[in-house]
Amino acid sequence: MGQHVEIDVLRRYTSNQLNEQEQVAIESHLDHCDVCFETYLHVIDEWSIPHSLSETFTDDTVERIKSSQPNMSPDSSLPTKTDYHKKTITNYFLAAGLTVVLMFTGAFKLVTNVSDKINVYDEPISDELVDKATGFLTIQTTNMGEEESKNE
Fold first, then answer.
1. How open is the CA angle 140-141-142, to the nearest 5 degrees?
2. Is the pLDDT of residue 21 over 60?
3. Whether the Cβ atoms of residue 15 and residue 47 lie closer than 8 Å to each other
4. How far is Cα 24 from Cα 29, in angstroms, rounded to an integer?
């Protein structure tokens, strides 16, 4: 295409009404012609979806859902402050009761006995693992050196 593309052709191109050969030719032309590309951008700006939704679609849909589900009023789903406080107090009493039961069964004493047996001055397990890995690698390296000397 040596000349500029007409605006009607660009509108048909935008709405996918051209055959494949014409579409390829227009795409190629738009790659090289800044004037036609600017016109194409304006066509896209004015183009609208043929089956767009109405402005009130969302509100209408929400109202239809509310009317089909009468037991879902917005006020009934939210707990009141009184309900919240009752639940909080119930949880505190439950926690206190559980603590008393654990104290009488000796569960806390068992935990303190186990923690007393742990020696804080023991070597950390990470250091132990590093030492063992280093020892293993030293043995492997020594064995490989012996095998090489036997093969020579």
1. 90
2. yes
3. yes
4. 9
